[in-house]
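<purpose> Linking amino acid order to shape
<body> The protein record starts here
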Amino acid sequence: MTILMLVKFAQAVWKKDNILAQTCLANGVKLPEIRENSPIKSYQLVASPTNHVKVLLANFWDEELGGERLALVWELTVEDNKITKIRTVFDGANPLIDEVRLIKNYQNLYQRKVLVPSEFPFKITHFSGNIEYEHERLVLRYLNESINGFLQIHIKPVTLGLERYKGKDDQFHTLKDGTRVLYRTRFDLGYEIRFQKEGMHYTVAIGNKKYLKKKFTVNDLIKIAESMR
């Protein structure tokens, strides 16, 4: 019976039939919002190593990518043939959900505030990142598969002045608040700037330059830096 109930629930999510989905939930359990307008193209129910838990995976159809894109991953806790808890593991309408967790972990670990972008040079379809503990460095990677593009930001404590990073042809620019920015003019792999604020060193790069389907300028990088709060 449990499997049949879960299949009914998954099909209700697929068809956006919230009333039918709600019949599978225990009292007080809320259905997470699916915020993107793209229709659910397919779904899959998979086992979990945790007792009484199943995992629902669903995919959007993405016209830009010309294929399916992961929409959501929900952990469903089931008791007495009802779903008693839904935990959102991944939200494809918000690929930056993992960014928030990673940044929070870094700030709690080192007790340092970091600045992150609110504007991007392209639509973000995927995010990945990590903490490099040896150098106390936070790495953020924002991707768009359709243009073969990524925005990568490295954040670490300042150990050298900005001038020490200047190459022969690199240029200095200035943000609106007076912060100096070092632009790497000759960089075959991407477009890159560096700046320092509140004791932290930021490297902002757009790549991979060789395979990108559009070109970017120093102004695009500066716009990202201006948005970092």
Notes: The chain has four helices and eleven strands. The first strand starts at residue 40 and ends at 47. The longest helix spans residues 97-110.
